[in-house]
């Protein structure tokens, strides 16, 4: 057998093993993730993996108004979050540098694993876990709000609802929670959580308040919950808001849905 034929056979065998591993572990080999910008303005989506998981799509990209971007989702267990950066300005003198009014990840276009500055609406995921290839997902306003967003699964089985926050909370955000850009006199670009605004242990559910018994809803978290009941709004909010959908073909994160 020639060396080229040997390499071809080895490549085919490797592909077959990968496919068998994926199928026997329940994950769909054609799983897709899509980020949709339905807003009338551009956004800069960002993706941050939890510790130990790979960065997807280099961690961030530009998405023009009324456009979308689809990419292959992870074939094995993955956990992380997706959010949108808004009001971003690129630097002509420093390629790859990006300064954003909300969700900024250290001034970079490609976040490469870095988190975003609050306030920011977050889509949180734990994909391909359990023997039924479960994908868990929720929209969190624990870190505040900057843009309406929903998560929409397609072709999954079991409990697969559309969840999120369709309301524009910037228009109704209490004055004490408002983030303005430019600071002080610009338009409202974000709505802070009580934790971000006041930094107390009680509102941040930390130290002695870091348990389901002591971490309780506040007037600030209730503002978010009343407007967007299908979201998590404080540290120990109801775990039933995390939905588990078996083997979805696609997961869409839709901004301004």
TrEMBL record:
<feature type="signal peptide">
    <location>
        <begin position="1"/>
        <end position="26"/>
    </location>
</feature>
<protein>
    <recommendedName>
        <fullName>Osmotin-like protein</fullName>
    </recommendedName>
</protein>
<feature type="disulfide bond">
    <location>
        <begin position="105"/>
        <end position="111"/>
    </location>
</feature>
<dbReference type="InterPro" id="IPR037176">
    <property type="entry name" value="Osmotin/thaumatin-like_sf"/>
</dbReference>
<keyword id="KW-0732">Signal</keyword>
<feature type="disulfide bond">
    <location>
        <begin position="205"/>
        <end position="215"/>
    </location>
</feature>
<feature type="disulfide bond">
    <location>
        <begin position="160"/>
        <end position="245"/>
    </location>
</feature>
<feature type="disulfide bond">
    <location>
        <begin position="195"/>
        <end position="204"/>
    </location>
</feature>
<feature type="disulfide bond">
    <location>
        <begin position="165"/>
        <end position="228"/>
    </location>
</feature>
<feature type="disulfide bond">
    <location>
        <begin position="173"/>
        <end position="191"/>
    </location>
</feature>
<feature type="disulfide bond">
    <location>
        <begin position="88"/>
        <end position="100"/>
    </location>
</feature>
<keyword id="KW-1015">Disulfide bond</keyword>
<dbReference type="Pfam" id="PF00314">
    <property type="entry name" value="Thaumatin"/>
</dbReference>
<dbReference type="InterPro" id="IPR001938">
    <property type="entry name" value="Thaumatin"/>
</dbReference>
<feature type="disulfide bond">
    <location>
        <begin position="39"/>
        <end position="256"/>
    </location>
</feature>
């Amino acid at each position: 057998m020639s060396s080229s034929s040997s390499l071809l056979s080895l490549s085919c065998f490797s592909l077959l093993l990968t496919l068998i591993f994926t199928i026997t572990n329940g994950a769909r080999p054609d799983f897709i993730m899509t980020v949709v910008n339905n807003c009338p303005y551009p956004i800069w989506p960002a993706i941050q993996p939890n510790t130990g998981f790979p960065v997807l799509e280099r961690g961030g990209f530009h998405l023009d108004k009324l456009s979308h971007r689809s990419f292959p989702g992870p074939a094995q267990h993955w956990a992380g979050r997706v959010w949108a950066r808004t009001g971003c300005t690129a630097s002509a003198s420093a390629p790859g540098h990006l300064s954003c009014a909300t969700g900024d990840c250290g001034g970079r276009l490609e976040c490469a694993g870095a988190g975003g500055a609050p306030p920011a609406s977050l889509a949180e995921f734990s994909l391909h876990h359990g023997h039924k290839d479960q994908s868990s997902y929720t929209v969190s306003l624990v870190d505040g709000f900057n843009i309406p967003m929903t998560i929409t699964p397609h072709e999954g089985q079991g409990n697969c609802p559309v969840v999120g926050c369709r309301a524009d909370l910037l228009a109704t955000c209490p004055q004490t929670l408002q983030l303005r850009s430019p600071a002080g006199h610009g338009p409202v670009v974000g709505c802070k959580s009580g934790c971000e605004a006041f930094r107390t242990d009680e509102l941040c559910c930390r130290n002695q308040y870091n348990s389901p018994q002591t971490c309780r809803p506040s007037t600030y978290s209730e503002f978010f919950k009343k407007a967007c009941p299908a979201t998590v709004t404080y540290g120990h909010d109801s775990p039933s808001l995390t939905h588990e959908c078996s083997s979805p073909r696609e997961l869409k994160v839709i901004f301004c849905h």
